[in-house]
Specification:
The structure holds three protein chains of three kinds. Chain A is α+β, with helices and mostly antiparallel strands. Chain A contains 18 helices and 32 strands. Chain B folds into two domains: 77 residues, Ubiquitin-like (UB roll) (Roll); 73 residues, DNA polymerase, domain 1 (Orthogonal Bundle). Classes of the chains: A alpha+beta, B alpha+beta, C alpha+beta. Chain C: InterPro entries: CO_DH_flav_C, CO_DH_flav_C_dom_sf, Diverse_Substr_Oxidored, FAD-bd_PCMH, FAD-bd_PCMH-like_sf, FAD-bd_PCMH_sub1, FAD-bd_PCMH_sub2, Mopterin_DH_FAD-bd.
Chain lengths: 758, 187, 336
């Protein structure tokens, strides 16, 4: 079944996207649509004493203004507000009461006949606050670090394991030691599409009932419908959430956001269709990758064998939810040190709850770990690649399980070869072109290969076309395309005759699209549904008069070129169209649920791996850093579509460049407010920042992870990149910058004050 | 409008002060993709909002509304601009081209009639989520019209007004240079 | 954004009369900064006068031997104009270092002079800002001031009221070239040397420049000498493109027989206006161009500079940038 899978095919949604026909959440035209504009708090902690909406209400064309004072009664219990990605705690409820819990908290919704009117009236709202002292600074509150609560979310993000051996003693006795602190700022996902929900309100279609069709920016329509149904007490049958295209997610749309709540609230109260779109500035009031401080200590014998490993991490969370950025576990997955100790803590501050952001925990933790490994390599006088090979593990030491597959060694080999690593002079500052110092660095990346349950439907229609569907999302990852490939191959139908539908709660349920699990999860369900259709077709084939299939088993047939065929003689075939005719001219339909084979999976550790090699150029005088070329070699099971998979890895590498060199949400703790809340001042890479990026896929055969043997490629591209860049910057300059992003001022200050250590 | 105002406002807050009138809508004629359309717009409507909310040409995207991302790039008199930073009423005498006007195809025809840049973006997988894509493509058309880009590095610099958060830049540069190479003169 | 009325200006005089009649009116040309600020509710004009159709859209030679840039010529058309690229390549380079191709296609030369600061606090109406709301205080002094000014921040009373910087790249080159701004207003026409056009904040930081109410920029005159042989515009920023300058330097040298005859150095990103020190530039004349003399000038130009914490690095960065820019200008092969 490999006519399509494994081939670098163009996206099936490409034409829609390049012609502007792809519609995103704010782009569905509705008669009589009202526009909502959100008003945000300008303080960080305290209470609204009074909210003056009189002037705003006087604006002609304003329909209503919702605040905590006039909002309708809603679900009482926290549980109703818990979405599928909610961490332990009490989810934030917009307009709940007068309390202000973080700066930028939505406090009112202005609803008007036009967007411009709502935006204008919002400027006329004045608020009297009773301010309280806030705490937003991680460094100033480190003494408040505590263990996080555990809950449902802990399932996919287990806390670090208990210590093994005796780290303190082993570290003390280790002839070579490194111990460093790493500081990362917070980051906002900033997908290009602004968060938006268009709620279409219809009345009377079903008896006296009301119907809500919601176009939402979400990484999971199921998550949105559950939230809306529970919070507003609207039956499932009266809600449909649709999200055919998502303009980037990166984790930000894993949880229902304010605009969904507010748009539904307004539509329900006003009995009108309502759209609420956030501004770019307001996108900085949503969840984010939290700021962290980590300490990594490594001890090794003089031959480079790692004996002791310590990793602790403190991450920010809000006062009301224990979001935990699990950064400290990765060392146990990558290196076989005998004596290890991990510690994971959080600090509650007066901020919004952080959220999963591309490789949550992973990229942050691995960056610190892999920088520390580089530091250890320099202390040992050993090549960083050699050190990693010396400490290669075939087992995940945290759960003591063998990897279902792990071609990291081959990733190292091929990546190093492509990059030319062997020619590296290990001496820092040894490569120079005039003012420019050149540096080469490397790092390892690792991410989970998750697999979750999902449902999919396949329908071989009377016209011979195949319609396959699942309520998953394509956030740019290529879901549409790879599912079409899987379906086409499973039933031997040309891709152009296969239509894959997603992002609609009328379709079979699928989990939120995150954690790089969609290819495995939904792919397995699609394959199962198509196979179920195949079995039905097989039964039809057997019943045909003089059927060549009468005496064979299902395992003896294959589907190719629109026909069912005998495996041992594919020329013996019955066209699918004949089988549809035999079905009384009716479509052949099957819904399947794919459930992970836990008995099989739990005996193994399941992860993707990568080896990253980076070249940087640093202007010696100015401290400006450019990533001139990078090679990432990835072992992620089977690659369904090397073209879209490559784009995902490249995208991850660009994110890595961004995290290492540019990105940071900077808060002014005087106000508890993020000040660079715009795309002019919150820097992400532009085209001119990105040079030669190379991707190598090292295929793995893995029949344990899932029936397709895929591991997912959404996160692995970012994981090793920042560390490789930071290590390359050290190689170029001799300066170890342990606070990301490595902006020019940090290098300049380190160089001029000569505080650098190595 | 006034009808809903009266019925929906809570009675205890009904304004005793006079209503605030905002600038009235007036006829504004825009020529978009060769078609003249008369709209009723208040002066504060940006070209971007006019296209998206009043003409339902949603191919032009809103990514920041402040000229900081390039998602709203359209061509005005064949020059690329940010549609979010101009008022619709200022563009009455201009020729506006949006992503919808680049391919000469109607709703049903095949992809073979795509603009060469649209084709190249698909072939080079120059996008992922697709949200910045119409702006990238319109910007690239403008870039080719301008004729200042000679090398891939020129393309990188002169396409830097279009942010792609998915990080599809290598594909974008490959797509544009492939069209530059095949069509050295203006497109 | 508040509500406003809109009218197209039919002539220069009519535009000035209309503008003078309404205190809350504003001219709109490219709109790239004004509409941005209106959406942030920072600028709140009640009437916009669209001047795009005024006859100020050409670049012409003038008697002095220089070049006159009509106020409504776009930044892109200026940067790529043959006369500009050949005779004033410094200006061309500076313009192309700023913004994006799209913005340069919209923004006008006159509008570029009118750009307002990118200070985070000025842009955010939730925070105090003396420039936006005189008397409310400056949040940046004790806040996140990485992009802020290090020079010219003190008022006469030795207090600091505002540490905003002027964000333009183009103006830095214009300052180095000693351009002259032509304006017309209710009281007639006048010319303002670019160096005097933008103000230091003093205790009235809400005033960016010396334009009187109702005055309209009509043109920018470039003097005959554009330093086409030895020039450099060096811009240091947080990413390779589409970012405002942390520090920028426009350097122009006239070098004859191995000696500097004339030198111009203007700094961007460090003060409320493009920063020049003609007295220090003069110390370079009759000197052979080399790193030592450049380093001396660089150090002298930053004497008295004061950082506010996050932006203190700019002092050293600016010194290094000056030296590099002057070296680049020296070594730039003449006649491209």
């Amino acid at each position: 079944m490999t006519q399509y899978t494994g081939r670098p095919l163009n996206r099936v949604d490409g034409v829609d996207k390049v012609t502007g026909k792809a519609n995103y959440a704010a782009e569905f035209d509705v008669q009589g649509l009202l526009y909502g504009y959100i008003v945000n708090s300008t303080i960080t902690k305290g209470k609204i004493r009074q909210i003056h909406t009189d002037d705003a209400r006087r604006v002609e064309g304003i329909v209503s203004i919702f605040t905590h004072e006039n909002r309708p009664k809603l679900a009482w219990f926290d549980l109703s507000y818990k979405d599928q990605d909610a961490p332990p705690g009490s989810p934030f409820r917009p307009l709940r009461d007068a309390q202000i819990q973080f700066n930028g908290q939505p406090i009112a919704l202005v609803v008007a006949e036009t967007f411009e009117l709502a935006r204008y009236a919002a400027t006329l709202i004045r608020v009297d606050y009773e301010q309280e002292t806030h705490q937003t600074d991680l460094q100033a509150n480190r003494h408040k670090a505590r263990k996080p609560a555990v809950g449902m979310a802990t399932l996919f993000k287990p806390p670090p394991p208990d210590p093994r051996g005796n780290f303190e003693e082993a570290f003390r006795n280790a002839p070579v030691q490194v111990a460093s602190e790493y500081v990362h700022g917070s980051e906002h996902h900033n997908p290009m599409e602004l968060f938006a929900s268009t709620v279409v309100y219809e009345k009377g279609r079903y008896k006296s009932g009301e119907r809500y069709t919601i176009y939402d920016k979400t990484q999971g329509v199921t998550n949105s419908i559950l939230y809306v149904s529970q919070v507003f007490n609207i039956p499932f049958k009266d809600i449909r959430v649709i999200s055919p295209y998502v303009g980037g997610g990166f984790g930000s749309a894993l949880r229902p956001q304010h605009q969904l709540f507010l748009a539904v609230l307004a539509a329900r109260e006003l009995k009108r269709s309502v759209r609420v779109t956030l501004t770019r500035q307001q996108m900085f009031t949503l969840g984010y990758r939290p700021a962290t401080v980590q300490t990594v200590a490594l001890g090794a014998s003089s031959d480079g064998t790692m004996t002791a490993m310590y990793h602790d991490g403190v991450a920010v969370t809000s006062q009301f939810e224990d979001y935990t950025e699990v950064v400290t576990t990765w060392g146990g997955l990558l290196y076989p040190a005998e004596h290890v100790k991990f510690d994971q803590k959080i600090i509650s501050l007066d901020v919004a709850t952080p959220m999963d952001m591309r490789a949550p925990g992973g990229v942050t933790g691995v960056t610190a770990l892999e920088c520390a490994v580089d530091e250890l390599a320099y202390k040992l006088g050993m090549d960083p690649l050699e050190l990693r090979l010396r400490n290669y593990t075939e087992r995940n030491m945290n759960n003591d399980l063998t990897y279902s597959s792990k071609e990291l060694r081959e990733c190292f080999r091929r990546g190093a070869e492509r990059f030319g690593w062997a020619k590296r002079n290990p001496e820092p500052r040894s490569m120079r072109k005039e003012h420019t110092l050149v540096g080469w660095g490397m790092a390892t990346g690792i991410w989970d290969a998750f697999h979750a349950p999902a449902r999919a439907e396949a329908v071989l229609m009377v016209n011979g076309k195949l319609r396959v569907s699942s309520a998953t999302a394509d956030i740019g990852t290529g879901t549409y395309t790879i599912m079409t490939q899987i379906a086409a191959d499973t039933l031997g139908i040309p891709m152009e005759d296969v239509l894959f539908k997603l992002g609609d709660t009328d379709l079979p349920v699928a989990p939120i699209a995150g954690g790089s699990w969609t290819a495995a999860t939904v792919g397995s369900a699609v394959k199962a549904a198509c196979e179920a259709v195949g079995e039905k077709l097989f039964k039809l084939a057997r019943k045909l008069p003089n059927s060549p299939f009468a005496k064979v088993r299902f395992s003896d047939v294959l589907f190719a070129e629109k026909a069912i065929r005998l495996k041992k003689d594919p020329a013996i075939a019955i066209p699918l169209q004949t089988l549809i005719d035999a079905n009384g001219g009716a479509a052949v339909r099957a819904i399947s649920t794919s459930v992970p084979n836990l008995l099989k999976q739990r005996k193994y550790a399941r992860n993707t791996h990568s080896a990253v090699f980076v070249e940087v150029e640093v202007d010696e005088d100015f401290g400006t850093v450019r990533v001139t070329r990078a090679v990432t070699s990835v072992a992620a099971g089977r690659i369904l579509n090397p073209k879209t998979a490559r784009s995902q890895i490249i995208g991850g590498m660009v994110w890595g460049i961004s995290k290492a060199l540019e990105e940071e949400s900077v808060m002014d703790h005087q106000f508890g407010r993020i000040m660079n809340h715009s795309l002019a001042e919150y820097h992400v890479p532009v085209n001119a920042d990105i040079h030669e990026l190379d991707v190598i896929f090292v295929e793995e055969h893995d029949d344990i992870v899932n029936p397709l043997g895929v591991k997912g490629v959404g996160e692995i591209g970012i994981v090793g990149m920042p560390a490789a860049i930071a290590n390359a910057v050290f190689h170029a300059t001799g300066i170890r910058v342990r606070t990301l992003p490595i902006t020019l001022d940090k290098l300049l200050t380190a160089a001029t004050t000569e505080v650098s250590t190595s | 409008m006034n009808l809903t105002l009266g019925t929906l406002l809570p009675t205890n807050e009904s304004p005793s002060l006079p209503a605030i009138q905002t600038a009235t809508r007036q006829p504004v004629t825009l020529t978009v993709n060769g078609v003249k359309t008369e709209l009723q717009l208040a002066p504060w409507t940006s070209l971007l909002d006019a296209l998206r909310e009043y003409m339902h040409l949603t191919g032009t995207k809103k990514g920041c509304d402040h000229g900081q991302c390039g998602a709203c790039t359209v061509l005005v008199n064949n020059k690329r601009i940010n549609a979010c930073l101009t008022l619709a009423i200022m563009q009455e005498d201009t020729q506006i081209t949006t992503i919808e006007g680049l391919s000469s195809l109607d709703q049903t025809s095949s992809s073979s009639k795509l603009h060469p840049l649209q084709r190249a973006f698909i072939d080079h997988d120059a996008f992922q989520c697709g949200y910045c894509t119409p702006g990238q493509i319109c910007s690239a058309v403008g870039l080719l019209n301008e004729g200042h880009a000679k090398t891939a590095d020129d393309v990188r610099e002169l396409m830097s007004g279009n942010i792609c958060r998915c990080g599809a830049y290598p594909g974008i540069v490959a797509a544009i240079t492939s069209v530059m190479d095949s069509q050295p003169t203006t497109v | 954004m508040n509500s406003f009325t809109y009218a197209r200006a039919s002539g220069i005089t009519q535009a000035v009369v209309e503008r003078s009649a309404k205190t809350d009116a504003a001219f709109i040309a490219g709109g790239t900064n004004l509409l941005d600020l209106m959406k942030e509710n920072v600028a709140r004009p009640t009437h916009l006068i669209d001047i795009n159709h005024l006859p100020l859209t050409t670049i012409t030679s003038i008697e002095s031997g220089g070049l006159r840039l009509g106020a409504l010529v776009t930044n892109a058309d200026t940067a790529y104009h043959q006369q500009v690229t050949q005779r004033y390549p410094l200006l061309s380079q500076a313009i192309l270092a700023g913004a994006s191709a799209q913005l340069r296609n919209m923004a006008t030369d006159g509008g570029n002079l009118m750009q307002r600061t990118r200070c985070y606090y000025f842009y955010d109406t939730a925070t105090p800002c003396n420039k936006r709301e005189p008397g409310s205080g400056c949040s940046a002094i004790t806040g996140f001031n990485r992009i802020h000014a290090i020079l010219g921040t003190y008022a006469q009373d030795q207090q600091v009221y505002c540490i905003a910087t002027h964000p333009s790249d183009m103006c830095v080159a214009l300052a180095a070239l000693e351009a002259v701004v032509r304006v017309t207003g209710p009281d007639g026409d006048r010319t303002i040397p670019l160096a005097e056009f933008h103000r230091l904040p003093g205790d009235t930081p809400h005033l960016d420049n010396v334009l009187q109410d109702g005055e309209l920029i009509t043109a920018i005159d470039l003097p005959a000498d554009g330093f086409p042989d030895h020039y450099a515009y060096l811009k240091l920023r947080d990413r390779s493109s589409y970012a405002f300058a942390l520090v920028s330097v426009a350097a122009a040298l006239d070098i004859q027989d191995g000696q500097i005859k004339d030198a111009r150095i203007a700094l961007g990103g460090v003060a409320h206006r493009p920063w020049r020190r003609p007295d220090l530039e003069a110390t370079l004349t009759e000197k052979a161009p080399n790193k030592t003399v450049f380093q001396y000038v660089a150090d002298a130009m930053l004497e008295g500079a004061q950082g506010f914490g996050h932006n203190t690095f700019k002092i050293e960065l600016a010194k290094r940038a000056i030296v590099r820019a002057l070296l680049q200008a020296t070594n730039r092969p003449s006649a491209v």
